[in-house]
Amino acid sequence: MKKILFIFLGVFFILIVGLQILNYHFSPKYSGEIDLEKLNSDTDIFFDDFGIPHIYAQNAEDAYFSLGYIHAQERLFQMEMMRRVGTGTLAEILGEDLVEVDKFFRTLGIPKHAKWSDAVWANNKKSPWKAATNAYLSGINSYIENGKLPIEYTLLGTKPRLFTTEDIHGIIGYMSFTFAMAMKTDPLVTKMARTLTPAHMEVLSIHTLPSHHVIPLNYPKRTDENAIMSDNLMSMLDKIPVPLLEGSNAWVISPQKTASGEVLFLNDTHIGFSQPSVWFEAHIEYPGYSYYGNHLAGVPFGLVGHTRTHSYGLTMFENDDQDFYEEQVDPLKPNHTIFNNGYIPIRNRTEKIAVKGQSTIEFEINESYHGPIMNEVIPEIGKLTSNPVASWWVYLLEPTKALEATYKLAHAADIHEVEHAVRLIHAPGLNVMYGDKKGNIAWWAAAKLPNRPKHVNSKIFLNGSTDKDEPKGWLPFEENPMSINPASGFVATANNQPDTLSNGVFFPGYYYPGDRWDRIAKVINSRNDWTQEDIKNLQLESINEKHPINAKSMIDAVNPNLFEGFETIKLALSKWNGDHKLSNTAPTLYYKWLYHTLKLMMSDELGNEDFENFLSTFLYIRSVPNLISTENSPWWNNVNTSQVESRNEIIEKALTISLKELSNQFGSNCEDWTWEKAVVLVHEHPLGAKKPLDRIFNVKSSAVPANEEAVNKLAFKLNGSGIYHVKSGAAMRIIIDFANVESSESIIPTGQSGNVFSKHYKDQSEMYANGQYRPQLMNESFIKSNSKNHLKLRAKIKIQESSNTTK
Question: Are the C-beta atoms of 170 and 114 separated by less than 8 Å?
């Protein structure tokens, strides 16, 4: 026994010492002093209780240098993953499994576009945003050269190269791609249109329906220079090791509807869950500037943020900015496509992909007149047609000005300057939300919108051999959807369809049906005395009012005599208000039953693979009410049987399967089928896909009220397993009352740091799961007197000068 005890204590001692050594080598530095070249003046950084840096600098360049340095300390490996996606170089560090991902992004053209944007950027004249960007990059690279590299590099046996502005443009390109609903949807819609009957297509909500909720527009009066008039101011991809933007909510309430008599601003961007979390928060102060922002890895300016006088946020516009053109190849000239009775050569180039542990791979990329040919990298296209299919994507048509736009959003003095910044965003489509200390509220759809011919259905492959399907130019920015100081007293966006443009048509997109927007609008309109504390209930709400209607529709189709104990099931669903509380049983039954109903309806026509693809598109959420309630839909009939199945038969059969599976999974007592047992949330790290690294890097959360299209959207893919892995949700929840900006609040899903040895790696995860908030501190006196960690970055040049003077 003594020998066993001695061995145990020895192993325990070795583990403790080993952990201390690892902690010493890899943990972030939050206190003390660091001497750095390229820093002009000393900068003080105070970390609050959640590891958020509060940077006090003597000038802008030192502030952004310090931001880059600290951002790299906390998120360098996340920056690495982001730039490698955007530059098509993941396989170089992660191996052959990522070759197809690199091929996809290179074929799509994001790395090529990053080079173009970078060349234009390099030729631009000096500007404040260029100087700040260079300072930020210098800070990142200073950390790479002087700081502790994250342990991920040691595990992968590699070291990072220095960052460049081309890397930043690659990251911006990846961000612009991430929604990418056209790639998921258009091949599937095209296939259905070509293989199914018009009656099948009519039941689907490919385009906006009258039952969907649209965002009201309120165009401002403008001067001859198109400025807002001041007298109106008060009116394959699962492998990608970084998250995708999914959607978002934002609403801004005017002073007429708040208790404080000041603007109330809220934003929660919906992004794929990951570890580390997407947003990095930082507070910057230098003479004449005070700003608190949410930063994307490798991008110097906050995409969401606020000063003491204005705030701006984002949701995805979801506009359709990508079309697919099916080309016709000339049989006599196989390297040419036909266009308007003429011929246009196919351009090609060879690219090389470095692969970890293997030889470099060469592959060819072909481009038609319309854009890159995607058959080889999007399997659904290759299966659908042998003709080349080219991607026409607005983002690739001009260099990005995102760095200039985000700098100007963060440094704007008023609503006019914000709109000027918004005009610079050509893609991806974003809803930019705004509120200020003067009482203005606003929403702009920021995007360059193509003016398509009226006959064009942008969800189906277009004819590339003629100019009849070509865009006729661009809509002027002033016609973009927007609402400036509306009489309703609020603006809100939730990825749903904006109302018709001045030409009387809806701009096409991949919009959600508006369940979230409708709920937000109803609640805001219910009172005129909103406070920062009261509005939290709406931001955390997990109610979808459509689901009980869908459930009742299915219940009414069932013969109760066929099911023992049906009254208990009926009661659970009949009294359901659409809430997804963890103690509820209704969601557990509803989603299982819905999945099997849809599968029995659709998999015979689509096949299992395309049925699963359908569940990943906007079509699924938009189409469910019509699909399950339409009595005479051809989808109900199983094409593989000789008889004609009815709606009632399919719904009853789906219920039979569901009840059996739920009993096997959770027990025979349906009162035990609580939603909490069916929900799983794990924030996955890029290295956490392999055991035992998952136990080290992944962050597992308590169960959350997962749902489809509630305001507090915690999304999962519908499936038949009965276990729902939450894949995305609010990447932050922000609330700002301009009556006291210093008391604004937020929360992120895991923690501020991406360093596994930091105490801030996951210190917000349980707070987030439980619907708690923490402060966004801006009060200098409070920050400095309460901070337990003060890091001083010292200008090495000045230290040397001081030393020489002394001598």
Answer: yes
The pLDDT tens digits for 86-105 are 999 999 999 999 999 999 99
Residue 122 near residue 165, CB atoms below 8 Å: yes
- For residue 727, the SS3 value is strand
Quote the tokens at residue 253.
């309430």
pLDDT band for position 209 (cuts 50, 70, 90): confident
Torsional sign, CA 579, 717, 296, 757: positive
How many C-beta atoms lie closer than 10 Å to residue 632's C-beta?
9
801, amino acid identity: E
Residues whose CB is less than 8 angstroms from the CB of residue 65 and which lie 6 or more positions away in sequence, other chains included? 38, 39, 43, 135, 136, 138, 139, 142
Domains of the chain: 2-31+47-179+323-395+791-797 (1.10.439.10)
The residues facing 272 across adjacent strands are: 728
Per residue in 332-383, pLDDT (tens digit) is 888 999 999 899 999 999 999 999 999 999 999 999 999 999 999 999 998 9
Reported residue count of the chain is 807
Dihedral sign for Cα 62, 63, 68, 70, please: positive
Does the model's pTM come out above 0.90?
yes
- In this structure, what DSSP letter does residue 196 have? S
SS3 99: helix
Q: Is the peptide bond before 692 cis (omega within 30 degrees of 0)?
A: yes
CA distances from 370 to 113, 151, 324, 346, 386 (A): 15, 44, 8, 10, 17
Whole-angstrom distance, CA of residue 682 vs CA of residue 273 = 8
Q: How many CB atoms lie under 10 A from the CB of residue 798?
A: 14
> Cα 585 vs. chain centroid, distance in angstroms?
30
Check if the beta carbon of residue 777 is closer than 8 Å to that of residue 48: yes
What are the φ/ψ torsions at residue 331 (nearest 5 degrees)?
Answer: -60, -25
